[in-house]
Amino acid sequence: MKIVYTSRTGNVQSMIERLGIADAIKIGEGVDKVAEEYILFTYTDGYGEVPFEVEEFLSNNSENLKGVIASGNTGYGEAFCAAGDVISNQYNVPFLYKFEDEGTEEDVEKIKELIK
């Protein structure tokens, strides 16, 4: 399964690199097209919002979305990783995992198991 991601501060990109996913697709302006099943990795913007480029990307690619993994900061309380909740609910896919900032080694191992 393909991995698609976006990263503003580098936290999600760091996770992708630590997972060893060399062929992951990074979302640019959101106009990319993915014709195969994929899991989306995203950060949470503002106070629990889906990043603009992810909204744009999903408007053209939601049919192949199979799950979402989100990064966030626990300092935002209930908005921690809320972009994942929004995407999961809007596109009826599982919210597979939440991690803080760039994640821990434990997060890396758990995510590796999930995406096998």
Annotation, overall tally of beta strands: 5
Structure classification? alpha/beta
For the biggest β-sheet, the strand order reads: 2-1-3-4-5
* CATH architecture type: 3-Layer(aba) Sandwich
Binned, the helix content reads 25-40%
Architecture overview:
This protein is α/β, with parallel strands linked by helices and 116 residues long. It has 4 helices and 5 strands. The protein has a single domain (2-115), classed as 3-Layer(aba) Sandwich (Rossmann fold). The protein has a 5-stranded parallel beta sheet with strand order 2-1-3-4-5, sandwiched between helices. Strand 1 (2-5), helix 1 (11-19) and strand 2 (25-26) form a beta-alpha-beta unit. The model has no long low-confidence stretch (mean pLDDT 95).
Layout of strands and helices, then pairs:
Layout: E1 2-5, H1 11-19, E2 25-26, E3 38-43, H2 52-61, E4 65-72, H3 82-91, E5 95-100, H4 105-115
Parallel strand pairs: 1-2, 1-3, 3-4, 4-5
Short description:
This protein has 116 residues and is of the alpha/beta class.
Main features:
Rossmann fold; 116 residues; five-stranded parallel beta sheet; 5 strands; alpha/beta
